[in-house]
Specification:
There is one protein chain. By secondary structure, this protein is α+β, with helices and mostly antiparallel strands. The chain has a single domain, classed as Photosynthetic Reaction Center, Chain H, domain 2, CATH 3.90.50.10. Helices cover about 20% and strands about 30% of the residues. The protein contains 3 helices and 7 strands; from the N terminus they run αββββββααβ. Strands 1, 2, 3, 4, 5, 6 and 7 form a 7-stranded mixed sheet that branches. A hairpin with a 5-residue loop joins β1 and β2. The radius of gyration is 13 Å and the shape is globular. It starts with a helix and ends with a strand. It comes from Ornithinimicrobium humiphilum. This is PRC-barrel domain protein. Pfam families: PRC.
Length: about 110
């Protein structure tokens, strides 16, 4: 699991997909309410008018100062449209868990 300290050192890092292709820049980190560990990261999926989407960190890894996630870029770009400027609701969290096929866990927060 990626720690908060590692993410702090990678401020504005690139997020890359399972094949090492750039998805976008890392935005906010959302923490697990129970453990305080990083659970989700937002990613801007376009240069100028791209939207921000959530990507789980549960299976992510740091490779060459990038965050590699085990999903294809197309899947990440098609993630549920959830606002990234507030706490995730339980329903939004569940939508993300189902979309990425991640086991349920405590609700993350910004």
């Amino acid at each position: 699991m990626i720690s908060q300290e590692q993410l702090n050192a990678l401020y504005d890092a690139e997020v890359v997909d399972q094949d090492g292709e750039k998805v976008g820049a890392m935005g906010q980190v959302y923490l697990d309410n129970k453990t305080g560990e990083p659970a989700w990261v937002t990613v801007r999926t376009g240069r100028f008018s791209g939207r921000k989407v959530f990507v789980p960190l549960s299976s992510a890894e740091i490779v060459d100062d990038q965050i590699r996630v085990p999903y294809p870029t197309a899947m990440i770009k098609d993630a549920p449209d959830i606002p990234c400027d507030r706490h995730l609701s339980e329903d939004e969290e569940q939508d993300l868990f189902e979309y990425y096929a991640v086991d349920d866990g405590p609700a993350p927060s910004a």
